Amino acid sequence: MSILVVGSVFFDSIETPHGKIDRALGGAATYFSVAASFFAAVQMVAAVGEDFPQDAIDFLTQRGVDLSGLQIRPGLTGSWAGRYHEDMNQRDTLDLQLNVFKDFRPQLPASHRHAQYVFLANIDPRLQLMVLDQLSAPGLVGCDTMNHWITGSRSELEQLLTRVGILVINDEEARLLSGERNVVRAARRLLAMGPRRVLIKRGEYGVMQFSAESVFAVPAFPLEEVFDPTGAGDTFAGGFMGELARSGDTSEAGLRRAIVYGSVMASFVVEDFGMNRLRAVTPDEIERRYRQFVSLTDIDGP
Amino acid sequence: MSILVVGSVFFDSIETPHGKIDRALGGAATYFSVAASFFAAVQMVAAVGEDFPQDAIDFLTQRGVDLSGLQIRPGLTGSWAGRYHEDMNQRDTLDLQLNVFKDFRPQLPASHRHAQYVFLANIDPRLQLMVLDQLSAPGLVGCDTMNHWITGSRSELEQLLTRVGILVINDEEARLLSGERNVVRAARRLLAMGPRRVLIKRGEYGVMQFSAESVFAVPAFPLEEVFDPTGAGDTFAGGFMGELARSGDTSEAGLRRAIVYGSVMASFVVEDFGMNRLRAVTPDEIERRYRQFVSLTDIDGP
Protein backbone atom coordinates (compact mmCIF):
# COMPACT_ATOMS: atom_id res chain seq x y z
CA MET A 1 0.00 0.00 0.00
CA SER A 2 1.47 3.39 -0.89
CA ILE A 3 1.63 6.52 1.24
CA LEU A 4 0.73 10.07 0.31
CA VAL A 5 2.72 12.87 1.94
CA VAL A 6 2.15 16.59 1.54
CA GLY A 7 4.68 19.09 2.85
CA SER A 8 7.77 21.16 2.21
CA VAL A 9 10.83 20.53 0.06
CA PHE A 10 13.67 22.90 0.89
CA PHE A 11 17.37 23.42 0.56
CA ASP A 12 18.94 23.42 4.02
CA SER A 13 22.19 25.03 5.08
CA ILE A 14 23.08 23.62 8.47
CA GLU A 15 25.78 24.35 11.00
CA THR A 16 26.31 22.12 14.04
CA PRO A 17 29.26 21.80 16.45
CA HIS A 18 30.43 18.96 14.17
CA GLY A 19 30.62 20.94 10.92
CA LYS A 20 28.40 22.38 8.22
CA ILE A 21 26.62 21.55 5.01
CA ASP A 22 25.40 23.95 2.31
CA ARG A 23 22.14 23.80 0.36
CA ALA A 24 21.48 20.14 1.06
CA LEU A 25 18.19 18.57 0.00
CA GLY A 26 15.79 18.92 2.94
CA GLY A 27 12.26 19.79 3.99
CA ALA A 28 9.69 17.76 5.92
CA ALA A 29 8.20 16.02 2.86
CA THR A 30 11.65 15.00 1.66
CA TYR A 31 12.82 13.49 4.96
CA PHE A 32 9.46 11.79 5.36
CA SER A 33 9.46 10.38 1.81
CA VAL A 34 12.99 9.04 1.89
CA ALA A 35 12.46 7.34 5.27
CA ALA A 36 9.09 5.90 4.23
CA SER A 37 10.51 4.66 0.92
CA PHE A 38 12.37 1.87 2.76
CA PHE A 39 8.97 0.39 3.62
CA ALA A 40 6.48 1.34 0.88
CA ALA A 41 5.93 3.35 -2.28
CA VAL A 42 5.48 7.06 -1.61
CA GLN A 43 3.53 9.77 -3.44
CA MET A 44 4.97 13.19 -2.63
CA VAL A 45 3.00 16.41 -3.10
CA ALA A 46 5.04 19.60 -2.78
CA ALA A 47 6.26 22.64 -4.71
CA VAL A 48 9.82 23.41 -5.86
CA GLY A 49 11.33 26.04 -8.15
CA GLU A 50 12.89 25.74 -11.55
CA ASP A 51 16.28 25.54 -9.83
CA PHE A 52 15.42 22.12 -8.36
CA PRO A 53 18.25 19.91 -9.61
CA GLN A 54 17.85 16.80 -11.72
CA ASP A 55 20.01 14.75 -9.34
CA ALA A 56 17.50 15.38 -6.51
CA ILE A 57 14.68 14.25 -8.79
CA ASP A 58 16.70 11.18 -9.79
CA PHE A 59 17.50 10.35 -6.17
CA LEU A 60 13.87 10.55 -5.07
CA THR A 61 12.66 8.61 -8.10
CA GLN A 62 15.23 5.87 -7.51
CA ARG A 63 13.96 5.61 -3.93
CA GLY A 64 10.50 4.84 -5.29
CA VAL A 65 9.01 8.27 -4.63
CA ASP A 66 6.30 9.14 -7.15
CA LEU A 67 6.82 12.81 -8.07
CA SER A 68 3.75 13.24 -10.27
CA GLY A 69 2.32 15.50 -7.55
CA LEU A 70 5.46 17.66 -7.33
CA GLN A 71 4.77 21.13 -8.73
CA ILE A 72 7.78 22.69 -10.49
CA ARG A 73 7.00 26.39 -10.54
CA PRO A 74 8.62 29.56 -11.87
CA GLY A 75 11.01 30.89 -9.25
CA LEU A 76 13.29 29.36 -6.64
CA THR A 77 12.92 26.42 -4.27
CA GLY A 78 12.51 27.43 -0.64
CA SER A 79 15.67 27.55 1.48
CA TRP A 80 16.50 27.51 5.19
CA ALA A 81 19.70 28.16 7.06
CA GLY A 82 20.15 27.29 10.72
CA ARG A 83 22.76 26.87 13.38
CA TYR A 84 22.54 24.42 16.29
CA HIS A 85 23.74 25.30 19.78
CA GLU A 86 26.45 23.34 21.54
CA ASP A 87 23.92 20.99 23.18
CA MET A 88 22.01 20.35 19.90
CA ASN A 89 18.64 20.78 21.57
CA GLN A 90 18.27 24.36 20.39
CA ARG A 91 18.84 26.01 17.06
CA ASP A 92 18.65 29.47 15.56
CA THR A 93 17.20 30.17 12.14
CA LEU A 94 19.75 32.30 10.27
CA ASP A 95 17.77 32.68 7.06
CA LEU A 96 14.44 31.57 5.61
CA GLN A 97 13.35 32.10 2.01
CA LEU A 98 9.94 30.55 1.31
CA ASN A 99 10.17 31.36 -2.41
CA VAL A 100 7.71 29.21 -4.44
CA PHE A 101 6.58 27.47 -1.25
CA LYS A 102 4.91 30.74 -0.23
CA ASP A 103 2.05 30.23 -2.68
CA PHE A 104 1.93 26.44 -2.49
CA ARG A 105 -1.59 25.11 -2.99
CA PRO A 106 -1.59 21.32 -2.89
CA GLN A 107 -3.26 19.77 -5.93
CA LEU A 108 -3.62 16.03 -5.86
CA PRO A 109 -3.35 14.18 -9.20
CA ALA A 110 -6.29 11.82 -9.76
CA SER A 111 -4.01 8.87 -9.02
CA HIS A 112 -3.41 10.20 -5.47
CA ARG A 113 -7.02 10.76 -4.43
CA HIS A 114 -7.67 7.23 -3.25
CA ALA A 115 -4.64 7.19 -0.92
CA GLN A 116 -5.16 5.05 2.18
CA TYR A 117 -2.11 6.19 4.19
CA VAL A 118 -1.76 9.94 4.30
CA PHE A 119 0.66 12.18 6.16
CA LEU A 120 0.12 15.92 6.37
CA ALA A 121 3.56 17.24 7.26
CA ASN A 122 3.95 20.60 8.98
CA ILE A 123 2.34 23.25 6.73
CA ASP A 124 -0.49 25.77 7.12
CA PRO A 125 -3.49 23.84 8.50
CA ARG A 126 -5.62 25.45 5.76
CA LEU A 127 -3.52 23.57 3.22
CA GLN A 128 -3.70 20.39 5.28
CA LEU A 129 -7.51 20.69 5.23
CA MET A 130 -7.40 21.37 1.49
CA VAL A 131 -5.63 18.02 1.02
CA LEU A 132 -8.22 16.17 3.09
CA ASP A 133 -10.98 17.67 0.94
CA GLN A 134 -9.38 16.16 -2.17
CA LEU A 135 -9.24 12.62 -0.76
CA SER A 136 -12.04 10.14 -1.39
CA ALA A 137 -11.83 7.89 1.67
CA PRO A 138 -8.44 7.94 3.40
CA GLY A 139 -7.85 5.04 5.77
CA LEU A 140 -5.28 6.49 8.16
CA VAL A 141 -4.36 10.16 8.30
CA GLY A 142 -1.45 11.47 10.36
CA CYS A 143 -0.44 15.10 10.77
CA ASP A 144 2.27 17.26 12.27
CA THR A 145 2.19 20.98 13.06
CA MET A 146 4.35 23.63 14.71
CA ASN A 147 4.27 26.58 17.12
CA HIS A 148 3.62 29.08 14.31
CA TRP A 149 0.24 27.48 13.44
CA ILE A 150 -0.66 26.63 17.03
CA THR A 151 -0.58 30.29 17.99
CA GLY A 152 -1.50 31.84 14.63
CA SER A 153 -4.08 29.49 13.06
CA ARG A 154 -5.61 27.80 16.03
CA SER A 155 -9.19 27.42 14.84
CA GLU A 156 -8.12 25.88 11.51
CA LEU A 157 -5.79 23.56 13.38
CA GLU A 158 -8.57 22.53 15.76
CA GLN A 159 -10.79 21.82 12.78
CA LEU A 160 -8.03 19.69 11.25
CA LEU A 161 -7.60 17.69 14.47
CA THR A 162 -11.22 16.52 14.30
CA ARG A 163 -10.37 14.92 10.95
CA VAL A 164 -7.07 13.12 11.57
CA GLY A 165 -6.42 9.78 13.25
CA ILE A 166 -2.90 10.38 14.51
CA LEU A 167 -1.26 13.58 15.69
CA VAL A 168 2.56 13.47 15.63
CA ILE A 169 3.97 16.38 17.58
CA ASN A 170 6.97 17.26 19.74
CA ASP A 171 6.76 17.81 23.48
CA GLU A 172 7.07 21.58 23.35
CA GLU A 173 4.30 21.83 20.73
CA ALA A 174 2.15 19.42 22.77
CA ARG A 175 2.47 21.73 25.77
CA LEU A 176 1.64 24.83 23.74
CA LEU A 177 -1.34 23.27 21.98
CA SER A 178 -2.81 21.70 25.12
CA GLY A 179 -1.93 24.37 27.67
CA GLU A 180 -0.70 21.59 29.95
CA ARG A 181 2.88 21.27 31.17
CA ASN A 182 2.65 17.59 32.19
CA VAL A 183 3.01 15.30 29.17
CA VAL A 184 0.27 12.88 30.26
CA ARG A 185 -2.26 15.64 30.83
CA ALA A 186 -1.21 17.31 27.59
CA ALA A 187 -1.80 14.08 25.67
CA ARG A 188 -5.24 13.58 27.27
CA ARG A 189 -6.27 17.08 26.18
CA LEU A 190 -5.00 16.51 22.65
CA LEU A 191 -6.90 13.21 22.40
CA ALA A 192 -10.04 15.10 23.42
CA MET A 193 -9.50 17.41 20.42
CA GLY A 194 -10.08 14.56 17.96
CA PRO A 195 -7.19 12.23 17.08
CA ARG A 196 -7.45 8.62 18.24
CA ARG A 197 -3.72 8.57 18.95
CA VAL A 198 -1.21 11.20 19.93
CA LEU A 199 2.51 10.55 19.40
CA ILE A 200 4.75 12.87 21.36
CA LYS A 201 8.36 13.14 20.14
CA ARG A 202 10.78 13.92 22.96
CA GLY A 203 14.07 14.14 21.08
CA GLU A 204 16.87 12.30 22.88
CA TYR A 205 14.28 10.83 25.29
CA GLY A 206 12.30 8.99 22.65
CA VAL A 207 8.61 8.86 21.80
CA MET A 208 5.38 8.29 23.72
CA GLN A 209 2.12 7.11 22.21
CA PHE A 210 -1.19 7.86 23.92
CA SER A 211 -4.65 6.54 23.11
CA ALA A 212 -7.79 6.24 25.21
CA GLU A 213 -6.81 2.65 26.03
CA SER A 214 -3.06 2.61 26.53
CA VAL A 215 0.28 4.34 26.76
CA PHE A 216 3.49 3.21 25.07
CA ALA A 217 6.95 4.68 25.60
CA VAL A 218 10.09 3.90 23.65
CA PRO A 219 13.50 5.48 24.31
CA ALA A 220 15.61 7.03 21.60
CA PHE A 221 18.46 4.83 20.42
CA PRO A 222 21.52 5.57 22.59
CA LEU A 223 24.01 7.24 20.25
CA GLU A 224 27.47 8.42 21.24
CA GLU A 225 27.30 11.28 18.78
CA VAL A 226 24.47 13.23 17.17
CA PHE A 227 25.86 15.01 14.13
CA ASP A 228 22.78 16.82 12.89
CA PRO A 229 19.26 16.57 14.33
CA THR A 230 17.65 18.21 11.27
CA GLY A 231 14.74 16.19 9.93
CA ALA A 232 14.70 13.66 12.77
CA GLY A 233 11.01 14.21 13.52
CA ASP A 234 9.94 13.92 9.86
CA THR A 235 12.17 10.88 9.40
CA PHE A 236 10.51 9.32 12.43
CA ALA A 237 7.08 9.98 10.89
CA GLY A 238 8.25 8.50 7.57
CA GLY A 239 9.48 5.27 9.14
CA PHE A 240 6.34 5.07 11.27
CA MET A 241 3.82 5.58 8.46
CA GLY A 242 5.99 3.51 6.10
CA GLU A 243 5.92 0.48 8.36
CA LEU A 244 2.14 0.85 8.87
CA ALA A 245 1.65 0.86 5.09
CA ARG A 246 4.00 -2.11 4.67
CA SER A 247 2.36 -4.25 7.38
CA GLY A 248 -1.22 -3.02 7.03
CA ASP A 249 -1.38 -3.72 10.78
CA THR A 250 -2.97 -0.83 12.65
CA SER A 251 -3.60 -2.82 15.82
CA GLU A 252 -1.93 -1.54 19.00
CA ALA A 253 0.94 -4.00 18.46
CA GLY A 254 1.28 -2.95 14.82
CA LEU A 255 1.41 0.71 15.81
CA ARG A 256 4.04 0.04 18.48
CA ARG A 257 6.25 -1.78 16.01
CA ALA A 258 5.79 1.09 13.55
CA ILE A 259 6.84 3.57 16.26
CA VAL A 260 10.02 1.56 16.75
CA TYR A 261 10.72 1.56 13.00
CA GLY A 262 10.21 5.32 13.04
CA SER A 263 12.67 5.58 15.92
CA VAL A 264 15.14 3.39 14.02
CA MET A 265 15.03 5.68 10.98
CA ALA A 266 15.37 8.79 13.16
CA SER A 267 18.39 7.26 14.90
CA PHE A 268 20.08 6.84 11.53
CA VAL A 269 19.36 10.28 10.11
CA VAL A 270 21.05 12.13 12.97
CA GLU A 271 24.28 10.17 12.48
CA ASP A 272 25.35 12.35 9.55
CA PHE A 273 24.53 15.70 7.98
CA GLY A 274 21.25 16.26 6.20
CA MET A 275 20.07 13.20 4.34
CA ASN A 276 23.52 11.60 3.97
CA ARG A 277 22.91 8.67 6.29
CA LEU A 278 19.52 7.90 4.74
CA ARG A 279 21.20 7.74 1.34
CA ALA A 280 23.57 5.03 2.61
CA VAL A 281 21.53 2.97 5.08
CA THR A 282 20.52 -0.56 4.03
CA PRO A 283 17.43 -2.67 4.83
CA ASP A 284 19.74 -5.03 6.75
CA GLU A 285 20.98 -2.21 8.95
CA ILE A 286 17.39 -1.16 9.60
CA GLU A 287 16.39 -4.66 10.69
CA ARG A 288 19.50 -4.99 12.86
CA ARG A 289 18.80 -1.74 14.65
CA TYR A 290 15.17 -2.75 15.11
CA ARG A 291 16.41 -5.84 16.97
CA GLN A 292 18.74 -3.64 19.01
CA PHE A 293 15.70 -1.58 20.03
CA VAL A 294 13.97 -4.77 21.19
CA SER A 295 17.07 -5.68 23.21
CA LEU A 296 17.36 -2.14 24.60
CA THR A 297 13.83 -2.12 25.95
CA ASP A 298 13.07 -5.75 26.87
CA ILE A 299 12.56 -6.02 30.62
CA ASP A 300 13.15 -9.76 30.53
CA GLY A 301 16.63 -9.50 29.06
CA PRO A 302 18.61 -8.38 26.05
CA MET B 1 18.93 -12.05 51.88
CA SER B 2 19.08 -8.74 53.74
CA ILE B 3 20.44 -5.41 52.55
CA LEU B 4 22.77 -3.03 54.33
CA VAL B 5 22.34 0.70 53.64
CA VAL B 6 24.48 3.51 54.99
CA GLY B 7 23.38 7.11 54.56
CA SER B 8 21.52 10.09 55.94
CA VAL B 9 18.36 10.33 58.03
CA PHE B 10 16.94 13.84 58.05
CA PHE B 11 13.84 15.84 58.75
CA ASP B 12 12.65 17.46 55.54
CA SER B 13 10.53 20.57 55.17
CA ILE B 14 9.32 20.67 51.59
CA GLU B 15 7.39 23.16 49.51
CA THR B 16 6.11 22.29 46.04
CA PRO B 17 3.49 23.98 43.83
CA HIS B 18 1.04 21.46 45.35
CA GLY B 19 1.56 22.36 49.01
CA LYS B 20 3.99 21.88 51.85
CA ILE B 21 5.02 19.53 54.60
CA ASP B 22 7.01 20.32 57.77
CA ARG B 23 9.73 18.22 59.37
CA ALA B 24 8.73 14.97 57.68
CA LEU B 25 10.90 11.90 58.05
CA GLY B 26 13.40 11.92 55.17
CA GLY B 27 17.00 11.39 54.15
CA ALA B 28 18.52 9.02 51.58
CA ALA B 29 18.90 6.05 53.96
CA THR B 30 15.29 6.40 55.07
CA TYR B 31 13.77 6.51 51.57
CA PHE B 32 16.05 3.67 50.52
CA SER B 33 15.20 1.51 53.55
CA VAL B 34 11.45 1.95 53.36
CA ALA B 35 11.38 1.17 49.60
CA ALA B 36 13.69 -1.85 50.00
CA SER B 37 11.67 -3.15 52.94
CA PHE B 38 8.88 -4.22 50.56
CA PHE B 39 11.31 -6.76 49.12
CA ALA B 40 13.78 -7.79 51.82
CA ALA B 41 14.97 -7.17 55.38
CA VAL B 42 17.06 -4.01 55.70
CA GLN B 43 19.89 -3.04 58.04
CA MET B 44 20.19 0.73 58.27
CA VAL B 45 23.35 2.49 59.45
CA ALA B 46 22.94 6.21 60.12
CA ALA B 47 23.09 8.84 62.88
CA VAL B 48 20.18 10.75 64.43
CA GLY B 49 19.84 13.05 67.41
CA GLU B 50 18.12 12.57 70.72
CA ASP B 51 15.11 14.36 69.22
CA PHE B 52 14.44 11.46 66.84
CA PRO B 53 10.86 10.48 67.65
CA GLN B 54 9.70 7.09 68.82
CA ASP B 55 7.01 6.93 66.13
CA ALA B 56 9.69 7.11 63.41
CA ILE B 57 11.59 4.28 65.11
CA ASP B 58 8.36 2.29 65.40
CA PHE B 59 7.48 2.91 61.75
CA LEU B 60 10.90 1.75 60.49
CA THR B 61 10.94 -1.25 62.81
CA GLN B 62 7.47 -2.29 61.68
CA ARG B 63 8.68 -2.12 58.09
CA GLY B 64 11.36 -4.68 58.94
CA VAL B 65 14.24 -2.21 59.15
CA ASP B 66 16.91 -3.35 61.64
CA LEU B 67 18.01 -0.23 63.55
CA SER B 68 20.82 -1.81 65.56
CA GLY B 69 23.27 0.22 63.44
CA LEU B 70 21.42 3.51 64.03
CA GLN B 71 23.49 5.79 66.26
CA ILE B 72 21.39 7.99 68.55
CA ARG B 73 23.73 10.80 69.53
CA PRO B 74 23.61 13.88 71.78
CA GLY B 75 22.22 16.79 69.75
CA LEU B 76 19.68 17.18 66.99
CA THR B 77 18.84 15.14 63.90
CA GLY B 78 19.89 16.80 60.64
CA SER B 79 17.26 18.87 58.86
CA TRP B 80 16.72 20.19 55.35
CA ALA B 81 14.26 22.68 53.92
CA GLY B 82 13.72 23.10 50.20
CA ARG B 83 11.36 24.61 47.69
CA TYR B 84 10.63 23.20 44.23
CA HIS B 85 10.18 25.42 41.21
CA GLU B 86 6.99 25.42 39.17
CA ASP B 87 8.30 22.72 36.81
CA MET B 88 9.53 20.45 39.65
CA ASN B 89 12.85 19.76 37.93
CA GLN B 90 14.69 22.36 40.00
CA ARG B 91 14.71 23.12 43.68
CA ASP B 92 16.31 25.60 46.04
CA THR B 93 17.70 24.64 49.41
CA LEU B 94 16.27 27.09 51.94
CA ASP B 95 18.01 25.68 54.99
CA LEU B 96 20.39 22.86 55.88
CA GLN B 97 21.40 21.86 59.41
CA LEU B 98 23.69 18.84 59.45
CA ASN B 99 23.64 18.65 63.27
CA VAL B 100 24.74 15.17 64.47
CA PHE B 101 25.17 14.03 60.87
CA LYS B 102 28.19 16.35 60.65
CA ASP B 103 30.38 14.00 62.70
CA PHE B 104 28.80 10.78 61.49
CA ARG B 105 31.33 7.92 61.39
CA PRO B 106 29.65 4.71 60.28
CA GLN B 107 30.26 1.83 62.70
CA LEU B 108 28.90 -1.52 61.60
CA PRO B 109 27.64 -3.86 64.32
CA ALA B 110 29.21 -7.34 64.03
CA SER B 111 25.90 -8.65 62.68
CA HIS B 112 26.17 -6.30 59.66
CA ARG B 113 29.72 -7.13 58.57
CA HIS B 114 28.79 -10.13 56.44
CA ALA B 115 26.23 -8.21 54.39
CA GLN B 116 25.95 -9.42 50.80
CA TYR B 117 23.83 -6.56 49.36
CA VAL B 118 25.19 -3.17 50.30
CA PHE B 119 24.14 0.33 49.27
CA LEU B 120 26.28 3.33 50.04
CA ALA B 121 23.87 6.24 49.76
CA ASN B 122 25.11 9.75 49.03
CA ILE B 123 27.58 10.68 51.81
CA ASP B 124 31.25 11.69 51.92
CA PRO B 125 33.18 9.08 49.89
CA ARG B 126 35.63 8.78 52.81
CA LEU B 127 32.75 7.42 54.88
CA GLN B 128 31.62 5.18 52.04
CA LEU B 129 35.17 3.74 51.92
CA MET B 130 35.14 3.36 55.70
CA VAL B 131 32.03 1.16 55.37
CA LEU B 132 33.63 -1.02 52.71
CA ASP B 133 36.66 -1.53 55.00
CA GLN B 134 34.37 -2.96 57.69
CA LEU B 135 32.76 -5.53 55.40
CA SER B 136 34.14 -9.06 55.15
CA ALA B 137 33.14 -10.07 51.61
CA PRO B 138 30.22 -8.07 50.18
CA GLY B 139 28.56 -9.66 47.16
CA LEU B 140 27.06 -6.65 45.43
CA VAL B 141 27.85 -3.05 46.34
CA GLY B 142 25.97 -0.09 44.90
CA CYS B 143 26.70 3.57 45.56
CA ASP B 144 25.33 7.02 44.88
CA THR B 145 27.10 10.37 45.11
CA MET B 146 26.46 14.06 44.39
CA ASN B 147 28.00 17.18 42.86
CA HIS B 148 29.50 18.27 46.18
CA TRP B 149 31.76 15.19 46.36
CA ILE B 150 32.42 15.02 42.62
CA THR B 151 34.01 18.43 42.69
CA GLY B 152 35.33 18.46 46.27
CA SER B 153 36.51 14.88 46.97
CA ARG B 154 37.28 13.57 43.56
CA SER B 155 40.25 11.32 44.37
CA GLU B 156 38.41 9.58 47.23
CA LEU B 157 35.40 9.14 44.96
CA GLU B 158 37.58 7.65 42.22
CA GLN B 159 39.06 5.27 44.76
CA LEU B 160 35.56 4.27 45.82
CA LEU B 161 34.48 3.61 42.24
CA THR B 162 37.18 0.95 41.83
CA ARG B 163 35.52 -0.94 44.70
CA VAL B 164 31.79 -0.84 43.81
CA GLY B 165 29.86 -2.96 41.34
CA ILE B 166 27.03 -0.54 40.54
CA LEU B 167 27.06 3.23 40.37
CA VAL B 168 23.59 4.81 40.66
CA ILE B 169 23.74 8.44 39.66
CA ASN B 170 21.59 11.11 38.01
CA ASP B 171 22.26 12.49 34.54
CA GLU B 172 23.65 15.83 35.72
CA GLU B 173 26.07 14.09 38.10
CA ALA B 174 27.06 11.64 35.37
CA ARG B 175 27.98 14.56 33.12
CA LEU B 176 29.97 16.29 35.84
CA LEU B 177 31.83 13.17 36.93
CA SER B 178 32.65 12.03 33.39
CA GLY B 179 33.20 15.38 31.73
CA GLU B 180 31.01 14.15 28.85
CA ARG B 181 27.75 15.80 27.83
CA ASN B 182 26.39 12.83 25.86
CA VAL B 183 24.86 10.23 28.17
CA VAL B 184 26.30 7.22 26.29
CA ARG B 185 29.84 8.61 26.31
CA ALA B 186 29.43 9.64 29.95
CA ALA B 187 28.39 6.12 30.89
CA ARG B 188 31.35 4.58 29.00
CA ARG B 189 33.75 6.81 30.92
CA LEU B 190 32.15 5.95 34.23
CA LEU B 191 32.36 2.22 33.46
CA ALA B 192 36.07 2.71 32.78
CA MET B 193 36.42 4.12 36.31
CA GLY B 194 35.53 0.77 37.87
CA PRO B 195 31.86 -0.17 38.28
CA ARG B 196 30.55 -3.07 36.18
CA ARG B 197 27.25 -1.27 35.74
CA VAL B 198 26.22 2.36 35.67
CA LEU B 199 22.58 3.30 36.25
CA ILE B 200 21.72 6.81 35.14
CA LYS B 201 18.56 8.31 36.61
CA ARG B 202 16.90 10.81 34.27
CA GLY B 203 13.93 11.96 36.35
CA GLU B 204 10.75 12.11 34.30
CA TYR B 205 12.55 10.35 31.42
CA GLY B 206 13.34 7.18 33.34
CA VAL B 207 16.52 5.21 33.89
CA MET B 208 19.28 3.80 31.67
CA GLN B 209 21.59 0.95 32.61
CA PHE B 210 24.98 0.59 30.94
CA SER B 211 27.43 -2.30 31.13
CA ALA B 212 30.24 -3.38 28.82
CA GLU B 213 27.82 -5.79 27.14
CA SER B 214 24.49 -4.03 26.91
CA VAL B 215 22.28 -1.00 27.37
CA PHE B 216 18.80 -1.01 28.89
CA ALA B 217 16.39 1.92 29.00
CA VAL B 218 13.11 2.13 30.87
CA PRO B 219 10.82 5.17 30.88
CA ALA B 220 9.44 6.71 34.04
CA PHE B 221 5.85 5.76 34.77
CA PRO B 222 3.59 8.34 33.09
CA LEU B 223 1.95 10.25 35.93
CA GLU B 224 -0.55 13.06 35.51
CA GLU B 225 0.72 14.75 38.64
CA VAL B 226 4.00 14.73 40.53
CA PHE B 227 3.36 16.04 44.02
CA ASP B 228 6.84 15.90 45.50
CA PRO B 229 9.97 14.50 43.82
CA THR B 230 11.94 14.36 47.10
CA GLY B 231 13.56 11.00 47.66
CA ALA B 232 12.65 9.59 44.25
CA GLY B 233 16.24 8.61 43.44
CA ASP B 234 16.85 6.91 46.80
CA THR B 235 13.47 5.20 46.58
CA PHE B 236 14.45 3.93 43.13
CA ALA B 237 17.71 2.55 44.56
CA GLY B 238 15.81 0.90 47.43
CA GLY B 239 13.37 -0.88 45.14
CA PHE B 240 16.21 -1.87 42.83
CA MET B 241 18.53 -3.32 45.51
CA GLY B 242 15.53 -4.74 47.36
CA GLU B 243 14.37 -6.76 44.37
CA LEU B 244 17.94 -7.99 43.73
CA ALA B 245 18.16 -9.21 47.33
CA ARG B 246 14.72 -10.83 47.10
CA SER B 247 15.40 -12.65 43.82
CA GLY B 248 19.13 -13.28 44.25
CA ASP B 249 19.19 -12.94 40.45
CA THR B 250 22.01 -10.67 39.33
CA SER B 251 21.88 -11.80 35.69
CA GLU B 252 21.16 -9.10 33.11
CA ALA B 253 17.47 -10.09 33.14
CA GLY B 254 17.40 -10.01 36.95
CA LEU B 255 18.97 -6.56 36.98
CA ARG B 256 16.50 -5.25 34.42
CA ARG B 257 13.54 -6.49 36.44
CA ALA B 258 15.08 -4.90 39.54
CA ILE B 259 15.42 -1.59 37.67
CA VAL B 260 11.71 -1.75 36.86
CA TYR B 261 10.85 -2.47 40.52
CA GLY B 262 12.98 0.53 41.45
CA SER B 263 11.06 2.62 38.92
CA VAL B 264 7.77 1.33 40.32
CA MET B 265 8.70 2.43 43.85
CA ALA B 266 9.92 5.83 42.62
CA SER B 267 6.65 6.32 40.72
CA PHE B 268 4.72 5.81 43.95
CA VAL B 269 6.82 8.03 46.21
CA VAL B 270 6.31 11.14 44.06
CA GLU B 271 2.52 10.77 44.21
CA ASP B 272 2.35 12.32 47.67
CA PHE B 273 4.48 14.40 50.04
CA GLY B 274 7.55 12.93 51.67
CA MET B 275 7.12 9.29 52.57
CA ASN B 276 3.31 9.38 52.72
CA ARG B 277 2.69 7.21 49.67
CA LEU B 278 5.28 4.63 50.74
CA ARG B 279 3.49 4.33 54.07
CA ALA B 280 0.25 3.41 52.27
CA VAL B 281 1.30 1.41 49.22
CA THR B 282 0.57 -2.34 49.21
CA PRO B 283 2.45 -5.29 47.66
CA ASP B 284 -0.54 -5.78 45.34
CA GLU B 285 -0.26 -2.22 44.06
CA ILE B 286 3.47 -2.75 43.49
CA GLU B 287 2.87 -5.88 41.43
CA ARG B 288 0.08 -4.21 39.47
CA ARG B 289 2.26 -1.26 38.57
CA TYR B 290 5.10 -3.61 37.61
CA ARG B 291 2.73 -5.20 35.09
CA GLN B 292 1.76 -1.72 33.87
CA PHE B 293 5.45 -1.04 33.22
CA VAL B 294 5.64 -4.21 31.15
CA SER B 295 2.60 -3.07 29.16
CA LEU B 296 3.99 0.46 28.79
CA THR B 297 7.25 -0.73 27.27
CA ASP B 298 6.36 -3.92 25.37
CA ILE B 299 6.96 -3.37 21.65
CA ASP B 300 4.77 -6.34 20.79
CA GLY B 301 1.67 -4.96 22.46
CA PRO B 302 0.18 -3.98 25.81
Description:
The structure is a homodimer of 302-residue chains. The first copy, chain A, has 302 residues and is of the alpha/beta class. Chain A is built from eleven helices and 13 strands. The first copy, chain A, has helices spanning 28-36, 54-62, 125-134, 147-152, 154-161, 171-178, 183-192, 232-247, 252-269, 276-280, 283-297; strands at residues 3-6, 10-16, 19-26, 42-49, 65-73, 78-84, 91-97, 117-120, 140-143, 166-170, 197-201, 207-211, 215-218. In chain A, the strands form two sheets. A nine-stranded mixed beta sheet of chain A has the order 5-4-1-8-9-10-11-12-13, with helices on both faces. In chain A, strands 3-2-6-7 form a four-stranded mixed beta sheet. In chain A, helix 3 (125-134) packs parallel to helix 5 (154-161) and helix 9 crosses helix 11. The longest helix of chain A has 18 residues, at 252-269. The model of chain A has no long low-confidence stretch (mean pLDDT 96).
